[in-house]
Amino acid sequence: MAASYPPAALSRLHPGGAGGCPGGPVGYARRQEVRTMTDAFTVLKADHTEVEALLTRLTGGAGPASAASPDPARDAETLVMAESRHEAAEEMYFWPTVRERVADGDALANEAKAQEAEGKRVLDELRTCAPGDGRFEELVATFAAAGRAHIDFEETQVWPKLRAVLTPADADKLGDELTRAKAAGPTRPHPDAPDSPGALKTTGVAAAAMDKVRDAVSGRGRH
Ligand SMILES: [Fe+2]
Ligand SMILES: [Fe+2]
């Protein structure tokens, strides 16, 4: 949910006060700044919704794998790219915040990162498979079960505890960090790469850049 601020808070953000033309560049910049701030839970929820929709298409709901998707290869590719960006952003900014701010944050983050590591291995194999080869459907089904359980864990076990300790400004700042990290993030899972926040901000950046070069050459994700 986009943050909304009372006038007093806005005047603190913009010490220039009420001066300037509300319809001019300064007023416009103020409205843009407020409107584009999206809290962390909204950013992450949008990603989860996208992943859940892809999984529903790929698994055909309760039906056979890939039955509902007119283009399961493309949906799987989108899933791998979206998940890679999402989990890398969480590893860089979300889980460190959970560890720092939530009382049992270390235990929660450790459990979640074990789930994410397993998910990466499945997706890394999935991206080498093709619909109809048997393994593709098996991996989609495996990831669908694990991915849904992981999303449920984050949303029901972790988010309420983090929400309780973050101020709206904290949640907005984290949302901004996650958004930036996703934009610069990897498009492949890299299951064997170090996943510490520090490593992701150094070697992970290089891996993400290489992913984008390979995507540009192959046309991957261009749809
Ligand atoms: Fe996650
Ligand atoms: Fe997540």
From TrEMBL:
UniProt xrefs under CDD domains: Hr-like
InterPro entries reported in the protein's UniProt record: Hemerythrin-like
Pfam families, alphabetized: Hemerythrin
Region (Disordered) location: 1-20, 181-223
Transmembrane segments: none
Residues annotated as domain Hemerythrin-like: 41-162
Protein name: Hemerythrin domain-containing protein
